[in-house]
Amino acid sequence: MKVNGEEYRTIWMEGSTVFMIEQNQLPFKFEIFEAPTYFDTCFAISTMIVRGAGALGAAAGFAMAQAFMEAPEDGFMDYVLQAKDDIEATRPTAQNLFYATGRVFSAGKNSVDDAIKEAQLIANEDARDSRLIGQNGMELIEEEARILTHCNAGWLAFVNYGTALSPIYLAHKDGKELFVYVDETRPRGQGARLTAWELKNENINHKIIPDNAAAYYMAKGEVDMVIVGADRIARNGDTANKIGTLEKAILAKEFNIPFYVAAPTSTFDMDCHYGTDIEIEYRHEEEVLFQTGLDNNGNLNKFLVCSPGSEALNPSFDVTPKKYITAFITEKGIIKPNTQSIMSICKK
Ligand code: MRU
Prior knowledge:
alpha/beta, about 35% helix, globular, single chain, binds 5-S-methyl-1-O-phosphono-5-thio-D-ribulose, seven-stranded mixed beta sheet, Rossmann fold, 2 domains
């Protein structure tokens, strides 16, 4: 993805330092955050400097590799085991995070070099698979399609390209006229801040809509399809994604609108049988009570936007039962949301 004419990935590792786009500063400032140790990378994950399923996977893989590079000779295994626990405790829902720690940990048992290679491979695979998802998904998008998306499953949520937005990018490059409804995605505003910023960079027609406006446009017949990403998909097809996805899926079914979930096979969790088994992350109530934005001096600041003294609940994800999903768009093709189809594309 190009920013100010320069090609960027969302996250990368050079030597033992992990570099990532500081997503809490976007769309107001474009900054790169440097994480020299696995501890710093964990900090970046839990504070959402880096976020989104695939980017979290890459970050977790790099953090695991950093732990192997840092571990002292004396107590080597204790150090990396503790690091694995720390990395996996940062955010519980995104499957890619656990997929990456598992792979890099196994490789690192062989050698530190193997851990580094594996982490780089995971990041490269993520970029490759996102592009393939775009190629597979673009055939579903018709000329002049009006597409609704929730949260940010674009290139910022992955190493490059993204999932839900990847077919949109490729269809647009192919010359199709498109329009994207961008759900603002309260409380953190990943749609209003990140998806809108990405689409603007790509010159794709879009408008940000309030989270509760989807039914209005769907009822008027002005939404042709919904494409969202996924944080974890159970082997039966139930899908965890950003809070608010479930209501969009129910609405889409009511109004007969196809509802697609775009995700790489690394997001499918073969050990998780049903959506009810997926752990849902609860984040701090401050994210609901306060909003961050530019103040009059152009500085990023936090503002209280709720009744002072009231408390808030902040579940970060919900689970969409497979019956609401038209199909999964994966790097291996478009598949139906059932166990048999999922098993056929996932190795385990
Ligand atoms: O909490 P986040 O921003 O890390 O949430 C993850 C997501 O970006 C979304 O749920 C997204 O739609 C799927 S992951 C690309």
